[in-house]
Amino acid sequence: MWNKNHLSTYNKAESPLFSVQDNGKVDILNKQGDEKKIGLTPDGMYVLMQAWLQTNHMLDREKRDKLIELLK
């Protein structure tokens, strides 16, 4: 789950959280029990990750390398 250090100064969600389902779908919620959510399919997660990785994502080399290793 996310902690305070994971959120940008622009975060407006009360207590944001995410869940990853066995079928690869991902839900992002404002807070626990909230009915409104962002629901992503595996292809939706791919689009999100691809867009993020194509930017200057500011991820340190160790974390970047770990992500690459997980994708192999």
Secondary-structure element pattern, one letter each = EEEHH
Number of strands: 3
The computed structural class is alpha+beta
| Helix proportion | 25-40%
Q: How many distinct helices?
A: 2
- Strand count, sense and closure of the main sheet? 3 strands, antiparallel
Low-confidence stretches: none
Rg (C-alpha, Å): 14 Å
Give the overall pLDDT as a whole number. Answer: 93
Calculate the terminal CA-CA distance, rounded to whole Å.
24 Å
Word description of this protein:
The mean pLDDT is 93. 32% of the residues lie in helices and 17% in strands. It starts with 16 loop residues before the first strand and ends with a helix. The chain has a 3-stranded antiparallel sheet. The protein has 72 residues and is an alpha+beta fold.
